[in-house]
């Protein structure tokens, strides 16, 4: 297994750990996106994030986890359990742990009053405790919501306590906690990093192309992240020069499969290319049901290049709006090379766009046959002088097939634009 | 804060804990959906999930976490780090920890050969170690992928080790681990549970309606989970009779805001209603860019009631395909009550559906003005004899506004269907 021996974790940096509080996290009712957000942000700031734990909204569990964190990490971020419901006990638990009373932040209480007043209501009694902080802490004013955050410095450790509402967490981190950490750890140098996003290669194929040589170039931390149709790479190193060399190497071996050297999404990269080429796009989706349009319209400014889309779920729509001849559907079937080409062609003409995309397929679980099994998808692109269709066979469940087909359409579109 | 005093965690059950292994998890490159899946499944089986930890792909970190888990939990599920890349060290680390060699599972190796043969390739050298298991373990054959799972019983603890590929994890858990745990803990009684999904009420509003009385009805574990426009409740108790009483109470106080007593999504509930009423639906989306169609088409069998959708991103599309008069757009603006009504009406007629939905708004970050700020969204529903429009003002970022607007449209559609 130790094929590439010289991958070393980056050491000698202040350690950080995350404690996300919430019974819903350990019992799995909520996906812990806060942990991934905080892990990413702390890593980028230059901390070595060593642990991430979730515990129940229970005094004992929180205190035990805090005790352990204090013993091993310099920075501890505690997230969640600051809300108004009776199971939110993080605030009191920390005050008890340090043996201090809770005190009111008048600024936060005024913010709460403003919040409710602007919604035409008075402050409910159960909400007031959210403006309190342990007496040994520095309050962190939360102008983005209700719950006050706070920072405790004890025993040489820094403990940041933030609400678990994702939107508030992100804003508080950006505007208050990040500047605080940068000031407090003023000699912290952000890690040099390399992000590479590729499309059209599998994880083993990417590894094969990188080869042993890549991993002999120096000491760095390497992560490879496959997700529906894409593979991302993330490399952290202390040395920016090494990162530059690695980047050149990656560019050489992965070439046209790279669509970005940043966190940019494939749909944003496509948007960038369309703007550059002054192209416009129209989409005719059947089995993907709006996913392609959804991805592309998620990008700010998409209205510059996206004319629109038709989700042609029933055959009548293909005929009436996309001008696919009824006879053709009858003869070849709605899921066929001929029909998908007409869809791409039809939507392009109908919307007056320079490019048209068509997708038709069988997402399942029903609707498959021996000749046309579940997962069969046809994709097409049409421009003024050219059109092309592809046949794909995906496996797995409905949502998976839909996602893969949508991503495949974006991949072909990206390649088309980059020819 | 302790407004509702008698919420007790359910005790006296075997304890379980999760250890997800992966540097990508602590550095936040990957969202830990495996942890939430496993937490949910173990809780439903009747275990008390106490902790969930993620650690880096490092020998020391894994062994330290395992040591701690062995000291406190009866069942430990370790997930991830079984793949082919050099940072995947979970397998060897566990063998080292218990001082045993790794041995080959011939069955798994044959499966790996089959897997590659069916893709017209030979087995890469770096993949073979994935068929090994520590000699003190029982192998768990993985017919859904490459990496072998295994179960270790040591020191009175049960340690389940499973690959982190989500699709494989889910299938292995369903077909092998769940039956194993049910056999091994044969006296384990699943908890009685109540799931309630509501739309159109805020979290505090739900709490207010439940009131003190609800929380005085007995001993149970209570979770409330707000997400974009919806609030979910989850209650676990030992007593099925108590769950039945709580359900009646919930039904009484939350009434028509409840759209499901199961994990069913709002879009699935809408589909169910449309099928029952033999209705069909057509959607005209502007600022939501295909999100409504995407949500509705994610439900198996959506083709029975969803005719299709138009994403009218540029004004020309509204005119040409949805028959919104050009003059009306010029006079009232594309984001207006008049235009959204015409969109709903137009798409319904164009697709020959019984119901039409229209959405138009400003998702931002650009495009806002003093009179029509970012976040302003008009929604409309039109049927044969009736039409109605709503004006909404959302806050936050582009994707958030798009998601909220899409969810609001589904909420109004649900209410329309349930009148």
Question: How would you describe this protein?
Answer:
The structure is a homodimer of 419-residue chains. Chain A contains 14 helices and 17 strands. Helices cover 40% and strands 24% of the residues of chain A. The first copy, chain A, has three domains: 15-184, MoaB/Mog-like domain (Molybdenum Cofactor Biosythetic Enzyme, Chain A); 192-260, Alpha-Beta Plaits; 266-418, CinA-like (Maf protein, Alpha-Beta Complex), CATH 3.90.950. Chain A is globular, with a radius of gyration of 26 Å. In chain A, the strands form four sheets. The first copy, chain A, has a six-stranded mixed β-sheet, with helices on both faces. Chain A is α/β, with parallel strands linked by helices and 419 residues long. The first copy, chain A, has helices at 23-26, 33-45, 59-72, 90-98, 106-117, 166-184, 203-215, 240-254, 266-276, 291-297, 315-320, 326-332, 337-351, 398-418, and strands spanning 15-21, 48-55, 75-79, 102-104, 132-134, 137-140, 149-154, 157-162, 192-199, 221-227, 230-237, 258-260, 281-285, 306-312, 355-361, 376-382, 387-393. At the A-B interface, helix 1, helix 2, strand 2, helix 7 and strand 10 of A face helix 1, helix 2, strand 2, helix 7 and strand 10 of B.
